[in-house]
């Protein structure tokens, strides 16, 4: 185990203590079949100034995605479904997609922190690369070095990525976002989506997303 790996493990553990709660980083992922949203009051979602957004930030309908960077189903969504969602909804200004972190393990936590250290315009490209190469870096003998290579591929310097791995505030923010998702929005698995104030867990097609967005536009 490298010295950097030991340092980051210590930082991540400290982050959990800082928020005062134990996170179940070994949570199971859902089957690809989609669970329809319960007939409940609409969830009220507030979008922060520093969120990672795909599409026009001023688009009339918001799709919130909660994902873990080590989740295979999330990678499948980004590879197979998001391109069609982008073409139909995001590029046309009908909707925006807000990406939010829900790490399922320690490696996903650190990868999410690295994305947050990137410049806003670099983040979508980094997310795409992380999901596209997930099976390579997540299974690497030295995943931290693999993450550094991905960071450099989108323009981050080695010094910036090294500093990011040691940034306690960044890890705290990632964990806080997961806790908010669990406690406020009842997110329990990845990928999960909030569309029109309703929570959808598991697989969802581009066509289904388009139908839900259309209902919000009427």
How many E-type strands? 5
CATH homologous superfamily designation: Glutaredoxin
| Rg, Å, rounded | 17 Å
How many helices?
A: 9
Widest sheet, order of strands: 1-3-2-4-5
* Second CATH tier, the architecture: 3-Layer(aba) Sandwich
Helix content: 40-55%
Order of helices and strands: HEEHEHHHHHHEEH
CATH class: Alpha Beta
Choose one word for the global shape.
globular
Task: Please name the defining characteristics of this protein.
218 residues; alpha+beta; Glutaredoxin; globular; disordered N terminus
In short:
This protein is of the alpha+beta class. 51% of the residues lie in helices and 11% in strands.
Characterise this structure.
The structure is a single chain. The model is unreliable at 1-39 (pLDDT under 50). By secondary structure, the protein is of the alpha+beta class. It has a 5-stranded mixed β-sheet, with helices on both faces. It is built from 9 helices and 5 strands; from the N terminus they run H-E-E-H-E-H-H-H-H-H-H-E-E-H. The radius of gyration is 17 Å and the shape is globular. It is 51% helix and 11% strand. Helix 2 (72-90) packs across helix 4 and helix 3 (106-117) crosses helix 7 (158-165).
